[in-house]
Write a structure and sequence with these properties.
Blueprint: H1 5-21, E1 24-25, H2 26-33, H3 37-49, E2 53-55, E3 69-72, E4 81-87, E5 91-97, E6 103-110, H4 119-134, E7 140-147, E8 150-152, E9 157-161, E10 166-169, H5 171-179, E11 183-187, H6 188-199, E12 207-213, E13 217-223, E14 226-227, H7 258-262, H8 264-273, H9 282-289, H10 298-332, E15 336-341, H11 342-346, H12 348-361, E16 371-372, H13 380-395, E17 400-402, E18 406-408, E19 413-415, E20 419-421
Parallel strand pairs: 4-7, 7-11, 12-15, 15-16
Antiparallel strand pairs: 1-3, 2-3, 4-5, 5-6, 8-9, 9-10, 12-13, 13-14, 17-20, 18-19
Helix pairs in contact: 1-2, 1-3, 2-3, 4-5, 6-13, 9-10, 10-12
């Protein structure tokens, strides 16, 4: 019953229990969630009707009266999906995920001019084509979008994004109008934190700190399953956190700021300055560092000298990130710290460098193993962006209603669905 807070809470409890333990029978849901069997029966009926749950063939484990197991509806026929959009500086990444956050399709859209006023329109057009190609007619719940900078998720406004040149931009409204779909927007550091709490390690639901190192440097922290926003949703700005030992000049006028020391922009520029790669691209740098295969031919061995320099530079950044991680560990002492940084997501050796640096510098005792990469690995960004939409759905499934077809704006294609979700 939409608008009934108790019913909404019960529906959320059922949906989250199935997410954590499914497939599970109704009796198991009642036992695990603490709800009465009658409440579970009412809520599962509604969740089955809207297509968020499905009954699986055959009885659940146990003896006596058969118990039909329920699970999230992730089936290729009829299983709802959510689109994820991560807006970076050099490119945007599109993804399509199911209700368990599993990535079904992915596409990258390079930006010709990141500071073009028409960039959101171009992104929407490309995303619409992506949905038309990969949507496969499954019910589309909407779009979750994530990007760096100061983002106010309540109304989907990008308050400030220096690299894109955006100020007070109503991004959710722009994208929703262009796509003809519900759109939710949040900061990418908070989006990853939400994804870890909803879909990742159980410890993250107690407390976590997330450090995002890309072209934009951000952080987020959560306690008891809630990600902190702060007044005006401005929490998480760690770009000017001082990095011990760094003398890198920052645009703010100081030296040693985390953004100027360890961001993708700073790392790419340093890689070009040292002659390691032709373009200021961290993926190119990571590829160069990983190319030291002893079976490689003479050309690759000749390039190995550059690989060694690339590896050294990446290790330098890992140590800088580790120092920042140590500062955040001292302040928050979380159960888990998630670090999203390309080289450490792809190669464990760089994650070990981050852990070692943090262990040396942190004054808070604890297992350095609690510093971890995102659970989704390289698919973290489009998956976390989709969680911007899925998170509110799991908190209040009553927002999902029956309303005719949803049209994928620019493509003109209708999604074969009777679902509408108001984020």
């Amino acid at each position: 019953m939409a608008g009934d807070s108790r019913a909404s809470d019960n529906a959320s409890a059922v949906l989250r229990t199935v997410l954590a333990h499914g497939p599970v029978a109704r009796g198991g849901i009642a036992r695990l969630s603490g709800l009465s069997p009658a409440a579970v029966s009412r809520q599962t009926t509604g969740l089955l009707r809207t297509g968020l749950l499905r009954e699986l063939p055959g009885p659940a484990d146990g003896v006596g009266r058969p118990r039909i197991p329920l699970d999230l509806h992730t089936g290729a026929v009829g299983g709802p999906v959510a689109a994820g959009l991560h807006i970076g500086v050099p490119l945007s990444t599109f993804g399509l995920v199911d209700l368990r956050g599993r990535l079904l399709a992915r596409h990258a859209f390079p930006h010709r001019d990141p500071r073009s006023p028409g960039l959101p329109r171009d992104i929407a057009a490309q995303l619409s084509r992506f949905l038309g190609e990969f949507g496969t007619g499954r019910p589309l719940l909407g779009v979750g979008a994530a990007l760096g900078g100061w983002v106010r998720p309540g109304d989907g406004t990008v308050v400030r994004h220096e690299a894109l040149g955006w100020r007070d931009r109503p991004l959710a409204a722009e994208l929703s109008e262009a796509l003809g779909l519900p759109v939710s927007v949040d900061n990418h550091a908070r989006a990853v934190a939400h994804a870890e709490i909803l879909l990742g390690r159980p410890e993250a639901r107690r407390s976590l700190v997330h450090l995002f190192i890309g072209n934009v440097v951000d952080a987020a922290f959560g306690i008891e399953g809630t990600v902190h926003q702060g007044p005006g949703a401005a929490a998480g700005d760690v770009a000017h956190l001082p990095v011990p030992g760094s003398e890198a000049p920052c645009a703010c006028g100081r030296t040693g700021c985390l953004q100027a020391t360890a961001s993708d922009t700073a790392l790419g520029a340093e890689a070009v300055r040292r002659g390691i790669v032709p373009d200021p691209s961290v993926p190119l740098l990571v590829d160069a560092a990983a190319a030291g295969d002893p079976r490689a031919d003479r050309l690759l061995r000749e390039r190995a000298r550059h690989v060694g320099r690339a590896a050294a530079l990446l290790l330098e950044r890992a140590r800088h990130v580790g120092r920042a991680a140590a500062l955040l560990l001292d302040v928050f002492n979380p159960a888990v710290m998630v670090v999203t940084e390309l080289s450490s997501v792809l190669h464990d050796g760089y994650l070990d460098e981050i852990r070692d640096a943090a262990a040396v510098l942190s004054r808070v005792p604890g297992d350095p193993g609690r510093i971890v990469p995102p659970h989704a690995g390289p698919a973290v960004l489009p998956g976390a962006a989709a969680t911007v939409l899925l998170g509110p759905l799991f908190r209040d499934p009553s927002r999902l209603t029956w309303e005719g077809e949803i049209t994928s704006g620019g493509s003109g294609r209708s999604q074969s669905t009777a679902l509408a979700f108001e984020p």
